[in-house]
Amino acid sequence: MVLGLLKKGDEVLNVTNDFVAIRRKKGEVDIVPIIKEGESWRVDFEKIVTIGYGDNTVTFENENGVQITNF
Q1: pTM above the 0.70 mark?
Q2: What is the pLDDT of residues 7-61, one digit of tens each?
Q3: DSSP 8-32
Q4: Fewer CB under 10 Å: which end of the chain, C or N?
Q5: Cα–Cα distance, 14 to 36 (Å, whole number)
Q6: CB 6 within 8 A of CB 12
Q7: Alpha-carbon distance 7 to 4, whole Å?
Q8: Are residues 21 and 14 in contact, defined by beta-carbon separation less than 8 angstroms?
């Protein structure tokens, strides 16, 4: 099994049974959920969380592309 999650310059910070934490080249960190279904594993792309630079805000984009920001 190969999880093709990295791009050149990225670094894996941590791996658990539930997620992979990846520091991207830009310095942001992606928490990538991993789901085990029977004998296979998959990435839950809809629930990836990105920890980035900002002013302590949380931004969410819904299925219509509308961004919602909480302070």
Answers
A1: yes
A2: 999 999 999 999 999 999 999 999 999 999 888 889 999 899 999 998 888 888 8
A3: TT-EEEEE-SSEEEEE-TTS-EEEE
A4: N
A5: 17
A6: yes
A7: 8
A8: yes
